[in-house]
Amino acid sequence: MPKFSICFVNKIYSIGGSGTFIQNFQNYLKKKKYIISDLKKGNVDYIFVTGSNIRNIIPILFSKLFGSKIINRVDGKNWSHKFYSIFRYNYIYSYLQNLNILFFQLISDKIIYQSNFVKKVWCKKIFENKSVIIYNASNPCYKKRNFSKNVKPILISVEGSIDSAFNSKKLINCVDKNYKHEIYGRVSKNFKNQFSKKKNVIFHGEVPRVEINKILQKNRKYIFISLEMYPACPNSVIEAINHGIPVIGYDQGSMREIIKNKHGKLLKVDKNLNFRKLKLKNAIEEISQNYKKFNLELKNIDNKFKLNYMLKKYETEITKT
């Protein structure tokens, strides 16, 4: 493939899926001798934007005017404020954020949606010819977890922010007290205090992505509990299945595309986004009783969730633009 220069305008954070992706993609491009540039130097072939970057809109438009092409990786749309926010500010802020992302899609030369769900949320007819779907992925780290039915599973959740994961409080509360539930991610003191009497719930706070991988590699009978509703394409879930860990999540968003019945269980919700506590208990018990089978099925997950496959797809789509 012809070599190109590319600029990443979004910051890389040590916590969260977006930072994981950018770091992985930059490392991949550097190994292949592509030029990682910045807006100040100018004369860049491609500008890579994750969602939007309104702070750099002037130099981005200026570069586009002089021939740079914009590649826009798009996440999900803000929606949760419509259910629990009583402040007009939150409505306006979320609306403007969605508008910013829509604007960047308009000026982009190529739009990369993270799942079919995300595409359906955002895609207009005018975007069809310049859009493609590439799922998030992680390194295949399959681990055979040969645990018997009598071994009690450990539930594990990883989110960027526990507070902002819609209805996460209810899901955590519904976990039977006999199961240990380890939760990783940014969490407020007030949120944690609401679970002070639940000794089985352990909040570990923010942990760097390198440490999360080490935790997932441990020889434990983990069941991953996804706290996010309507996820765009959750990195934490994909990391879990790449480690041979079965998943329980909501039957919403991109989860329907990622978690098949042989890989975990999805909880159906009603029109008010509520679910039955018994369904969660049954899902945990079913996976625990058939753990070897679920784990074995995850040995050969679809290539689209494997890191090298994803990175090559990005490289190909950029080169074609």
Topology:
Elements: E1 5-8, H1 17-31, E2 35-37, E3 46-50, H2 57-65, E4 69-74, H3 81-84, H4 88-107, E5 110-113, H5 116-122, E6 131-133, E7 154-161, H6 168-173, E8 181-186, H7 189-193, E9 201-205, H8 209-216, E10 222-225, H9 235-242, E11 247-250, H10 255-258, E12 264-267, H11 277-289, H12 291-297, H13 307-320
Parallel strand pairs: 1-2, 1-3, 3-4, 4-5, 5-6, 7-8, 7-10, 8-9, 10-11, 11-12
Structure description:
With 321 residues, the chain is an alpha/beta fold. Helix content is 37%, strand content 17%. The chain has 13 helices and 12 strands. The protein has helices at residues 17-31, 57-65, 81-84, 88-107, 116-122, 168-173, 189-193, 209-216, 235-242, 255-258, 277-289, 291-297, 307-320, and strands spanning 5-8, 35-37, 46-50, 69-74, 110-113, 131-133, 154-161, 181-186, 201-205, 222-225, 247-250, 264-267. The strands form 2 sheets. It has a 6-stranded parallel sheet with strand order 2-1-3-4-5-6, sandwiched between helices. Strands 9-8-7-10-11-12 form a 6-stranded parallel sheet, sandwiched between helices. Strand 8 (181-186), helix 7 and strand 9 form a beta-alpha-beta unit. The longest helix has 20 residues, at 88-107. It starts with a strand and ends with a helix. The mean pLDDT is 90.
